[in-house]
Amino acid sequence: MSKKKLVVLTGAGVSAESGLKTFRDSDGLWEGYNIEDVATPRAWRKNPQLVLEFYNYRRKNVLEAQPNAAHYGLAELEKDYDVTIITQNIDDLHERAGSTHVLHLHGEIFKMRSEGDHELVYEIRGDIKLGDKAEDGQQLRPNIVWFEEPVPKIEEAIPIVRGSDIFVVVGTSLVVYPAAGLVNYAPWNIPKYIIDKRIPYTSEITNITAIEKPATEGVKILFDMLNANMK
Ligand SMILES: NC(=O)c1ccc[n+]([C@@H]2O[C@H](COP(=O)([O-])OP(=O)(O)OC[C@H]3O[C@@H](n4cnc5c(N)ncnc54)[C@H](O)[C@@H]3O)[C@@H](O)[C@H]2O)c1
Questions:
Q1: DSSP SS3 for 28
Q2: CB half-sphere exposure, 140, CA atoms < 13 A
Q3: Which residues contact 26 (CB under 8 A, 6 or more apart)?
Q4: Contact 120, 113 (CB under 8 A)
Q5: How would you class 61 by CB atoms within 10 Å of its CB: exposed for 0-12, middle for 13-18, buried for 19 or more?
Q6: How many alpha carbons fall within 13 Å on the CB side of residue 187?
Q7: How many other CB atoms sit within 10 Å of the CB of residue 26?
């Protein structure tokens, strides 16, 4: 029998217990910065040095962080399910925990690209500096989808969510669109679970079980619930 398709949408909350801060939890600031100053095209035009410093620092944080029990638990689900993780996170903790199908909606901290040509993408572990150029001679920038920029991967994500047999949401405030809108594409009659230490507004979502716990504990509870349903 083929495995059921289990799709997980994750946000910053899944990485919080790995020491990577979410920003809704700190009054709309991300590690002390206003989002508008570091994660928008306007910020890049106004002060590219600051934007690069911000993401260089984020890259160091992610290098020092380790996956937590929630990342490992979601990776382990691959034993019994055909799992796809759709993440808003730019860190690589799902991959390091062993998940093999991870779609990064908002880009990846270990990639950079030409500021002109979206196709010129390169791996980066160290810092990006002003004056570092892509092959087309244009400045390199983090390969991150900033606020107000289009989210091309959403087109890939929608049919994955539409085709799911089980849908799980972990650690996202569901306020950043279009990512938050993905929950509306899950078939109405399939089982859905949401894990968050403070469950966001979800009353329009049918057939949903809320697990109001930190991600590490919540994923364990999810395991028990899924196992009970399998029997
Ligand atoms: N690790 C990362 O890559 C990272 C970190 C911060 C922000 N971001 C960016 O933030 C944007 C989006 O918003 P978001 O919805 O992902 O994050 P968010 O900051 O808006 O919301 C975080 C959510 O996680 C919950 N949460 C916090 N700690 C938790 C824990 N230990 N266990 C379970 N839930 C917990 C909060 O209650 C909240 O609902 C994304 O675009 C993303 O790129 C990414």
A1: coil
A2: 22
A3: 32
A4: yes
A5: middle
A6: 13
A7: 11
Q: Which helix (H) or strand (E) holds 84?
A: strand 81-87
- Residue nearest ligand 1's atom 40 by CA: 88
Name the residue type at position 125.
R
**To 10 degrees, the CA torsion angle through 94, 98, 102, 106?**
30
Give the Å distances, CA to CA, from 2 to 79, 80, 81, 82, 165: 12, 10, 9, 9, 12
Q: How many CB atoms lie within 10 A of CB 108?
A: 21
**Cα dihedral 173, 178, 184, 185 sign:** negative
Does the pLDDT at position 203 exceed 80? Answer: no
pLDDT at 161 over 80: yes
Name residue, tokens 């799980």.
Answer: 168
Give yes or no for residue 216 CB within 6 A of ligand 1: no
Atom of ligand 1 nearest to the CA of 62: 1
By most ligand atoms within 8 Å of CB, the mutation choice from 10, 22, 62, 220 for ligand 1 is 22
Residue nearest to ligand 1 atom 27, measured at CA: 13
pLDDT surpasses 90 at 24: no
